[in-house]
Amino acid sequence: MTTLAEVARQAGVTTATVSNVLRGRGKVGEETRRRVLAIVEELGYRPNLTARALAEGRPLTLALVVSSIANPFYPQFALAAEQAARKQGYFLIVCNTNDDPALERAYLDEVGGSLAHGVLVMNADFVEQDVLLAAEKRGTSIVLCMWERPEQPPELPSIAVDFYRAGEIAAEHLLELGHRHVGAIVGSERNGNHIWRYRGFCDAMARAGVTDVAEHTCFGHDTIEAGHDAAERLLTGPKKLSAIFVTNDLPALGVLQTAVDLGLKVPTDLSVIGITDIQLARQIRPALSTVAVPTQEAAEMAVNLLLSLIKGTPRTGQPPMLVTSVPRLVVRSSSGPASF
Amino acid sequence: MTTLAEVARQAGVTTATVSNVLRGRGKVGEETRRRVLAIVEELGYRPNLTARALAEGRPLTLALVVSSIANPFYPQFALAAEQAARKQGYFLIVCNTNDDPALERAYLDEVGGSLAHGVLVMNADFVEQDVLLAAEKRGTSIVLCMWERPEQPPELPSIAVDFYRAGEIAAEHLLELGHRHVGAIVGSERNGNHIWRYRGFCDAMARAGVTDVAEHTCFGHDTIEAGHDAAERLLTGPKKLSAIFVTNDLPALGVLQTAVDLGLKVPTDLSVIGITDIQLARQIRPALSTVAVPTQEAAEMAVNLLLSLIKGTPRTGQPPMLVTSVPRLVVRSSSGPASF
DNA sequence: ATGAAAGCGCTAACAC
DNA sequence: GTGTTAGCGCTTTCAT
Q: Taking the CB of the first residue and of the last residue of chain B, which one, N or C, has fewer CB atoms within 10 A?
């Protein structure tokens, strides 16, 4: 590996000068400039970013802590985050905690503040705010991403999405289509993150006089299979349902499959609506109606907030929370007028 | 941020000793050991990994270069790679090139060898070996992942999967089920990466006397939609097909949907088989029969090869190529006996 | 068993 | 304009 010093030596100048021409900083004579550049080219010199980071006192990476990057929602967020980071001169390290708080803690300790300049933590049921707060106290800049309830900010800087509103939107859509016999499938445990989406949905339904959603609700996991099984229970139950609201797209896809299994036509016999708008939602047939969440916007906001935190003065008072634009309805072919 | 020096000062020793205590290296008295550890704990000291990397002359990260992490196949690979890397004390940086050779080049230049210790490059149609070779010549350790043709090694260290064989396996499965009227959908252009999977399939078919596959083949892209459209063309054509082979799972899912659209029962009227075995394959209904590729094994091999390259002596002669275990058939419910 | 000191490769004051 | 000189925080001989 050629070093700055080597380039300097061959160009007959000092490292400071080479550094200056490379970064476009300071004043450098056109003549030396050319000479240095020539040597750089000739030697194929590339600056050592680790050394630069150390010297600048600023790591060149940001970390993204997720449960498992293989979860279908995260890659899209990761992609957007990486691009936003790159735009600001940072690289993105992915940290899979595998839902293990110990691993999460380890990552925050090891990476935060030294290898990475800051950390984006994906909100999920298992995320423990204590752990994050402790790390923050130790000097790690953290932004909690995809917080679900703007009205109740977390104790950390965060990016929030109004998922309660998303639930409402889903309800409004079904109501407009005339659905009164609706069930719900929640992709998390009863006290999990998805509760707000569910509440938003239920509240909107209740306002319209549909008050028995809770009786036709299944709690479970955020997977296709869980959605499939829950739908089976719901649809083979005593009460006829004309529509099912699912708190996430993945289990909603499972519902679609159950419909096929049971010989139900979607959306004629059954309407299905999810939340998020993952890529798959528009690719499958019937394409899934859903309430789209501004993933990319959230990722960009998260990176920018994190960077401003890093540069800014230490926090005082309420941790900052940025709320993304409101989720918006995306009507595809899994939802239609109620037939009863 | 507390530094080593600060810990040393408070413990009344030098940085060398603290370093030794922390790394379990060298001889340290039990007494001082305890004292140091206490201070470390008290101050909440965490070593600065950037500084450590610089001092050790060994970056603590590996980079994974992919077209877009949002491609459904990559996250699983990335997950496995990250875990393998972590096991060896490395973190993983993801680099999305977005199919842009310039970006790929930029990443290799910036990250390779200085911020990251080495680079895993995901093989894809757009990957240009020249760019990689140039970077390698400049001292970046590179492993090309998911090379499709073990018999024709690339000019770089690589992890290969016998996709030709995967194609054969798919053919053998369909043949055993009695299929003679088969079509194929290739998830890449005519001269793209998937060609080997396709050839393997065609050759095996030809050996069994089925020689007209080429007449019922569509080339396209690696997406659900492309698969859907291609299947539509194939299935509404003049020739009746009892089975369709798809070079990748994603477009295979599209075929499944087309079957629904056209009122074809799978697998009674139509058998479908893909390659890869992405998570989705087992989650959708009907579950997709496919030829599973050892993703996790490939990721682990890739990380290990990269690390051995880094430690090892400069390459001479043929670049090393590791071949994963053979893909294996996974029969699910999208394939069944031919009805004609 | 512990300390002193020389870097790792780069940046950034400040001096000339 | 260009050079000098300190570091950044850690590791690692080499003394002691």
A: C
Would you tell me which CATH number, out of the four given (3.40.190.170, 3.40.50.2300, 1.10.540.10, 3.50.50.60), belongs to the domain B51-162+295-323? 3.40.50.2300
Does residue B15 lie within 7 Å of nucleic acid chain C, judged by its CB?
yes
Concatenating the DSSP letter of every residue in A122-135 gives E--TT--HHHHHHH
Please determine, for residue A299, whether its predicted confidence score (pLDDT) is greater than 80. Answer: yes
> Could you check: is the Cβ of residue A58 within 7 Å of any atom of nucleic acid strand C?
no
Q: Is there a common fold for A51-162+295-323 and A164-293?
A: yes
Per-residue flag: A233 CB under 7 A of strand C: no
In A, minimum Cα distance to B286 occurs at A257
- pLDDT tens digit string along A157-188? 999 999 999 999 999 999 999 999 999 999 99
Mean pLDDT throughout B180-201?
A: 96
Q: Which CATH superfamily, name and number, covers B4-45? A: lambda repressor-like DNA-binding domains (1.10.260.40)
Per the omega criterion (within 30 degrees of 0), is the bond before A154 cis? no
Cβ distance A285 to B260 less than 8 Å, yes or no, reads: yes
**Per-residue model confidence as pLDDT tens digits over B272-325:** 999 999 999 998 889 999 999 999 999 999 999 999 999 987 777 899 999 999
**Binning pLDDT at 50, 70 and 90, where does residue B148 land?**
very high
Confidence of residue A155 (pLDDT cuts 50, 70, 90): very high
Task: Render the burial of B305-334: b for 16+ CB within 10 Å, e for the rest.
Answer: bbbebeeeeeeeeebbbbbbeebebbebeb
Provide the β-strand partners of residue B329: B291
Q: Three-state SS across A140-205?
A: CCEEEEEECCCCCCCCCCEEECCHHHHHHHHHHHHHHCCCCCEEEEECCCCCCCCHHHHHHHHHHH
Domain spans, chain B = 4-45, 51-162+295-323, 164-293
A93, B95: Cβ pair inside 8 Å?
no
Mean pLDDT of B39-57: 95
Which residues in chain A have Cβ-Cβ distances shorter than 8 Å to B61? 61, 93, 115
Report pLDDT for A1: 82
> pLDDT tens for residues B220-240?
999 999 999 999 999 999 999
**pTM here?**
0.96
**Beta-carbon separation of B138 and A46 below 8 A:** yes
Q: Are A13 and A39 in contact (CB under 8 A)?
A: no
Thinking of the domain B164-293, which architecture would CATH place it in? 3-Layer(aba) Sandwich (3.40)
Taking all residues of chain B, what is their mean pLDDT, rounded to a whole number? 95
Q: Please name the residue whose C-alpha is nearest to the C1' of nucleotide D12.
A: B16
Instruction: Quote the minimal CA–CA distance from B69 to chain A in Å.
Output: 6
> What percent of chain A lies above the pLDDT cut of 90?
91
Inter-chain touch A253–B138, beta carbons under 8 Å: no
Chain B span 21-50 residues with beta carbon within 7 Å of strand C: 26-29, 31-33
Q: Is B228 exposed, middle or buried (0-12, 13-18, 19+ CB in 10 A)?
A: buried
Distance (Å) from CA A34 to C1' D9? 34
